[in-house]
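Re: export button greyed out
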Amino acid sequence: MAQLHNGHLTTEQLSAFFDKQLSLEEQAVFDAHVSTCQECQRRLADLRLAVALLRALPEEEVPRSFVLPGRLAPFQERPIRQGAATTPVSQGRRVWLHTLRRSVRSVSALAAVLALIFIISGILPPLRFGAGETASTTSAPAVAPSSTPTGESKAASGSQTLQRDLSPNAHAAATNTPQPTQTAGAKPTATAASNTGIGTQTEHAPPAPPLIDLGQPQARLILGALLLALSIIGFIITRRRRVTAH
Amino acid sequence: MPEDEALLITRIQRGDVNAFNQLVLHYQQTTYNVVLRILGDRDAAADVTQDTFITAFRAIQSFRGGSSFRAWLLRIASNQACDYWRRTNRHPLDSLDDVMDEDEPHGASMLSTLVATDQAANPEEFLLNQELQALIQRALQELPLDQRVAVILCDVQGLSYEEIASSTQTTLGTVRSRIARGRARLRDYLYKHRELLPRSYRLLSDKE
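Workaround output, generated via the alternate export path:
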């Protein structure tokens, strides 16, 4: 190794020679060469200067302390390669807690999505109903005195087939027959008896409404809000503790 | 070095953050400065340093007792710094190739001759110092990442070749080659920007 190339030390030899990283023999051979070679002496002086500049770079003070917060839990991204048997209990518990946290977060995310669907579907029908109602009330005074109630009601039910559960109220307003405190789907038989025109619609309504009738927008809103609250709670208790940088 | 590093590491491997923080306090200055010299940006260096300690704490199980914790920590730090550099600096090192093309080891590009003829005197030593630091930092940032890390660990931090080999997971031969090539490029960069070299640099050469 202690050979000169083109009569001089190579860049790598010179650098290693400068750092005394060569064998004693190499070091002696190059030392003898450098002591007589002006070229290599100048190159060595250059190298010494460059290294001196680098060493002269001041150590900068840290801008802040980098200590970790006490609550930061170790997180095993990879299986432990060694020392696995040191703390099996705490490791197993940590993994279990991690799995639990992840599943709770997944369920919370699902609940949040469902909540949004319920809330949106609870909000949208009243908007459409509001538009339909204004249309029917404006037409009602003009039509009611002249035409028969059955003819008008058929037209109304035909136009409102999409507004499933809301049509009985709208129809009641159009026909000018007072329905005392009737809610949608609550008394389908009464509506059918007073008017034959809406019989086709009341057949779609469930005969016995369940505890929470998803057909009602209010019920969907309430269910949506409940689900949203549950998902928020789920996210809060499983919130990942991030390291605060400051 | 902290009282008993091996004991501390055993405690850290059981999840003791306080034990780890003793090592953080001891090594944060070194870690921050290595990252700062690689990146040349204080804010980025602070972020990468913080990430380094979080990563080190979480990966502490993979640390083998008996080896140098400093080398292991600086390996994480330099890897993270290099990842950060690659993410944020995508432009090629074009100027570097020019330097290499005109690299004449026995020609006129001698720092020792140029500093001897540099007559620029500057009364503001502090400003000069800052300028010189900035110049060296720019020179470091012109180096390819592997050479940059090797030169910083060797010449700025004073690590041994063995420790650098451990930090960069390479052989001693590779370390030697990277340091030599890095220093040569750095010298060429400084020569290319010799008009920026201050008088203090010349005085340094005269002493030696």
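The CA atoms of residues 44 and 226 of chain A lie 78 Å apart. The button fix ships in the next patch.
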